[in-house]
Amino acid sequence: MLPLQGVKVLDLSSVVFGPLASQTLADYGAEVIKIEPPEGDSTRHTGPAAEAGMSAVFLGSNHSKKSVVLDLKRPAAREALMALLADADVFMHSMRPQKLAPLGIDPETLTERFPRLVYAGLHGFAQGGPYAGRPAYDDVIQGMSGLSALMEQQGGEARYLPTIAADKTCALVGAQAILAALFQRERTGRGCFVEIPMFETMVAFNLVEHLYGRHFEPPLAAAGYPRVLTPWRRPWRTADGHICMMPYTTQHWQRFFNEVGEPAVASDPRFADMAARTRHIGELLELAGRFVARGTTAQWLATCERLEIPAAPISRLDDLPDDPHLVATGFFTELDDARMGTVRFPGVPVKFNGTRAPVGMPPRLGEHTRQSLEAAGLSAAQVEQLITDGAARAPSFNATPEPTR
Fold it and tell me: What is the Cα Rg of the chain in Å?
């Protein structure tokens, strides 16, 4: 039995921030019902697909869920949503706050009607400030939170990280906050409104190490942790490739410089202890890199294993499904789908009592509309009327799937 078995989550979010948060809850055992508009989540059409509406990016953050289509612009669809909420534990959305009250799904309305409900608002910016209600996407938040400036400080050019770091980081914080609210409800009997703003979450994320000297008043140094900002912090070039090697402790560096025949360097005042190395980290890494370049990757991997210095080769994304450790631990999951064939997913990283939770197929658009609404107490005739009127949608899977690339 998974920890969240029996917990029901209604998720109105789209793209990645909210869907990845609810996918995490699904991974832990929750029943996650994805409420989609008639056109579906935009990521259903982002990236390659073996079936229209089931693209790669959608698969990445929507497995193990159900899909219900409701057109919340219609009163009948909003009434159906209330039926689904009657026994829900969590309601979450990523809509701009000003759009909620006209739909009757603002936190005040729902938490009053459903006192045990955990209501999670996944916003761009916290309420109460001048940015409240602004639209926000990953690129915008990377820039505003300091990430792009960190890239410029290290490499000379303002850039975004080549991953949707803000969406994914905030998703994990969102899942954590929802779990904390559920735990509080178990003690108090009442739910609460949880706000997870992207901007504040990423500022907090970036400043863990980078607030640095600004922790103090007056500041003892500028913001920015030197060790990770030096342009020399990168995989070291070897004679035939690269290696990710990290001598970190004083003992590591002593072993490294002994190995390359320069033991006196480890005693250089610039490098003798952690504080000194932090101040002179660029010089240290540049110097060490000259020695690393003389040996092959294989030689350095063997040397680092012998010296107990953390090291690894660079892995390309296409190599990861065949990584020997991931293969041995059964990390990747392959599912055989009647319409798409074999589909691969990363596994759930955590295990409970030594067991990794299973990964289920992501839902087709509206695949569970009938099933979920009837489970919420609507009759089959009522559900069919909603579908006929356009307030809900349920698909027919008789047509031959249309591959898209």
Answer: 25
How far apart CA 318 and CA 258 sit, in angstroms, is: 37
- What the block records as the tokens of 112 is 């009053």
* Residue 140 dihedral angles phi and psi, to the nearest 5°: -60, -45
pLDDT at 7 over 50: yes
User: What pLDDT, on the 0 to 100 scale, is given for residue 397?
Assistant: 59
Across the range 221-246, mean pLDDT stands at: 96
Longest CA pairwise span in the chain (Å): 84
The strand pairing partners of 242, in sequence order, are 237
Mean pLDDT across 346-363: 96
Q: How many other β-carbons are positioned within 10 Å of the β-carbon of residue 288?
A: 21
Unique residue bearing structure tokens 């392959």: 334
Closest Cα partner for 37 from 104, 95, 87?
95
List the beta bridge partners of residue 119: 91, 193
Task: Give mean pLDDT, residues 120-131.
Answer: 97
Question: What's the CA gap between 295 and 61, in Å, rounded?
Answer: 41
Return mean pLDDT, the chain: 96
Number of residues in the chain: 405
- For the full predicted model, state whether its pTM sits above 0.85: yes
Q: Is 196 helix (H, G, I), strand (E, B) or coil?
A: strand
All structural domains of the chain, each given as residue ranges with its CATH number in brackets, are 8-205+364-393 (3.40.50.10540), 236-313 (3.30.1540.10)
